[in-house]
Amino acid sequence: MQHFRHFKNWLERKRLWEFVAYLFFGQLATIVNIIVHFLCMGVFHAHYMTATIISWFLANVFAFVTNKLWVFHAKSASRWAYWKQFLRFMFFRLFALGIDMSSMYLLREWVQLGNGLAKVLTQILVGVANYFFSKFLVFRKLP
């Protein structure tokens, strides 16, 4: 545990801890997304687009909580401030869903990649977009 604290302190001094925490929780959200996606398709025989929407929703509920609490340590002064932040988060995640859906369509239908590779490539693109949305537009530090 001492090695972890030393490593965390070093990352904080280099101003990288937030990014590393985002990557860690982002990977967990991606895992949630992918597992739910394939469960929807494999167990419930959902179309890949339906599976993408369901997996998106559940992964983003997870992402909001982890980003707010453990990545950006965003405090809300009131319930209204909390809901504004949540709505802003969901707005930009909806925008990212558009990136997700259009990328899946493009990679599946035009490029004709398999579902697994298309999903992984799409999640990388969506993850990068979500980091910028979250850091600069949703959980930004206000003066």
Describe this structure in words.
With 143 residues, this protein is mostly helical. It has one domain (2-138). Helix content is 83%, strand content 0%. It is built from 5 helices and no strands. The protein has helices at 2-13, 17-42, 48-71, 79-110, 115-138. The radius of gyration is 17 Å and the shape is globular. The model has no long low-confidence stretch (mean pLDDT 90). Residues 22-139 form the GtrA/DPMS transmembrane domain. One of its GO terms (biological process) is polysaccharide biosynthetic process.
Beta-strand percentage?
under 5%
Mean of pLDDT? 90
Annotation field: number of helices = 5
How many separate domains make up the residues? 1
Radius of gyration: 17 Å
**Given the C-alpha coordinates, what overall shape results?**
globular
> Which bin fits the share of residues in helices?
over 70%
Instruction: Please summarize the sheet with the most strands.
Output: none
SSE series: HHHHH
Provide the low-confidence segments as ranges: none
Could you tell me how far the N terminus lies from the C terminus, measured between alpha carbons in angstroms?
35 Å
Number of strands: 0
Structural class: mainly alpha
Protein name: Cell wall teichoic acid glycosylation protein
Organism: Tetragenococcus koreensis
Membrane topology: Multi-pass membrane protein
GO cellular component, one term: plasma membrane
Notable features of this structure?
143 residues; mainly alpha; 83% helix; 0% strand; globular
